[in-house]
Amino acid sequence: MVALLTLLIGFNLQAQIVNPYSKARQVENEIRKQKKKENQEKKEKQEEEANQDKLASEKEQSGQTNEKSQLVWSKYDFIPGDVVIFEDDLKDEENGEFPSRWDLKRGNVEIAEFGGEKVIMFRDGAPTIMPYMQDPSQDYLPEVFTIEFDLYCGNDNFNTYLYDRKYQESGSPTGYTYLITNYYRMEFGTSSSRHPDEKNLEKRRWMHVAIAYNKGKFKAYMDETRLINIPRLDFDPKGLSFHTYHARNDNLYYVKNIRIAKGGIKYYDRIIEDGKIVASGIRFDSGKATLKPESMGIINEVVEMMIDHPDLKISIEGHTDTDGDPSNNLKLSEERAKTVSQMMVKMGISADRLTTKGYGETLPIDTNNTPEGKANNRRVEFVKM
Asked: pTM of the full predicted structure?
């Protein structure tokens, strides 16, 4: 009994001795866990702050880029024609097929998807295509016209002929009937010009190509820069053909958003005579109110007109075609009119000289059964108040 009691007392004493050490280890472990947790939280906070700084920097750089882009395009003086006579946005085309609104002279050309959009892809065989017109042998280019398209340029040349190479004769005694374009240069006959910022241009990139012809005068633009300016051509442009050499798999060319339009009279004369300017050349991203840079030629002209005539007040009115829901089209037309107004205010026009309206698809000026008709209905009107 005495021995058992002694043994129990011994165990109790040992427990009292060991237990403090065990508690100390528990406390030490808890401290380590808490410290580890704090370090982890500190690391996560630092990473979050770094990400926020990066996003802020990117946002700032993006803002600077947009501002720089606006400043550059504010010098753009290309004015698209008023009436669209050929339009192809490729929306209804099937991938892998030949583009349905075009004709082929030679080579391989087909619809492809590139960058999430449908494009005309020029493959091999020195491909040459031209718009499929009702009577392609006839001269379908008026005495004042514009041609526009987006070109993903390769490392060689892309040629834009001003006649139908399948059905028409060039009509030029010198043979200078086509505009040569590569990633930094344009050439037309004996006139050649390099882009002033060619060192910073990507060799494989999207560019907006624009051509303006006015009773013999010829101008050509690469994005916001005019590279060709010829006072008088020695032939009459009759049609359009696209052609390229060296269309290899590593050097393919793509084209989209092709438009031919008939030109018109000066804006101020038009607004005095007709009371408004109808502008189908102001473009937005599809289904959005985001203004495309090539729209700036028209806006620059209207801003300059309003600066020259300070008493002039204008209602900016948006219109759409019938694609989509009517209520959405109405809202979209209102937002697009506001976008144009906001741009003009940024460029120095007082807001009290401008009002905005949207009419959606309710006031068409052309049919909605053809691409050209829809293009004419998608417009912004500047109406004198």
From this structure: 0.77
Question: For 323-356, how does the pLDDT look when each residue is reduced to its tens digit (9 = 90+)?
Answer: 999 999 999 999 999 999 999 999 999 999 999 9
| Beta bridge partners of residue 193, listed in sequence order | 186
Q: How many domains does the chain divide into?
A: 2
Q: Which domain holds residue 373?
A: 266-384
Ramachandran class of 210: left when φ > 0, alpha when ψ lies in -120 to 50, beta otherwise = beta
Within 10 A of 282 (CB to CB), how many other CB atoms are there?
26
How many Cα neighbours within 13 Å face the side chain of 18? 6
The whole-angstrom separation of Cα 126 and Cα 122 is 8
Residue 168 located in a structural domain: yes
Residues 187 and 130 grouped into a single domain: yes
Q: Which residues pair with residue 114 across a beta bridge?
A: 117
Comparing CA positions, the residue from 281, 300, 283 lying closest to residue 292 is 283
* CATH number, domain with residue 355: 3.30.1330.60
**Among 257, 267, 263, 238, which residue's Cα sits nearest to residue 145?**
263
